[in-house]
Specification:
mainly alpha
Length: 84
């Protein structure tokens, strides 16, 4: 239970900083899609390197939207959730 609360708080903080950063951009939609592609790409790399790292990061219905919405911090959040 404590793990879930911490992960939700970290996700909310990352989402807040993402929206603050996108608000300052002249083209926020393009910046959001670039961030989403970066997050999904990082998650895909983590998934492909699972045999090397020993951390089985799965591409499922939770990890993909988290890394797409939060970008690179979302991929790191998914990685940390698999490590805990």
């Amino acid at each position: 239970m404590f793990k879930i609360v911490i992960l939700v708080l970290v996700a909310l903080i990352a989402l807040f900083f993402l929206f603050m950063a996108l608000k300052k951009k002249k083209k926020p939609v393009r910046a959001f899609f670039a961030s989403a592609l970066l997050g999904i790409g990082a998650l895909l790399i983590l998934h492909l390197m699972a045999d090397i790292t020993g951390v089985p990061v799965e591409l499922d219905a939770v990890s993909l939207p988290v890394s797409a919405i939060l970008g690179l911090p979302g991929a790191v959040l998914v990685l940390v959730s698999y490590l805990i």
